Amino acid sequence: MRQSLWLFPVIEVAHLLGMVVLVGAVATFDLRLLGWSAPRVRVSTLAARLLPWAWAGFAVQVVTGALLFSSEAVHVHANPAFQIKMVLICLAGLNALIFHYSIYRNVASWDESATLPLRARLAGGLSILLWAGIVAAGRFIGFV
Fold it and tell me: What is the C-alpha separation between 45 and 47, in angstroms, rounded?
């Protein structure tokens, strides 16, 4: 892949586009959880609209990320920025799992509320921080 003039840059652009879709969908949902956007939109409606986009972006990220990693695995594996990024991705996934399998189970009771439960707001705020960290760590991979 490294020897091709166009393959690496095309995969890198696809990785960036996947990031835009994933982080855009997640951040839009998280801003609703925080009460900073779309207060009239039901949380469940927003989740139904954005979750497929988030999963599609994540799938693009996984495929393109694996290809980018494989092009220089020895160098990247030892990179502290890459290691931080992987830890943050795991934490973001854990945060999403905890949210969807605990807090979100009772969404019917707070679905249309302008001010959401504290645990939902905390999950949204933590998610935004984690994804900002993931993006920053990913950007630093090339410089460390």
Answer: 5
HSE (CB half, 13 Å, CA atoms) of 64?
A: 19
Q: Is the pTM of this model over 0.85?
A: yes
Query: In the chain, what percentage of residues exceed pLDDT 70?
Result: 99
Q: At what angle do helices 7-34 and 118-140 cross, to 10 degrees?
A: 160
Return the closest-CA partner of residue 120 out of 105, 134, 135: 105
Phi-psi region of 117 (alpha: psi -120 to 50; beta: other; left: phi over 0): beta
Integer angstrom CA distances of residue 11 from 7, 15, 19, 69, 129: 6, 6, 12, 11, 26
Q: What sign for the dihedral angle of Cα 95, 101, 103, 104?
A: positive
Q: Is residue 20 within 8 Å of residue 57, measured between CB atoms?
A: yes
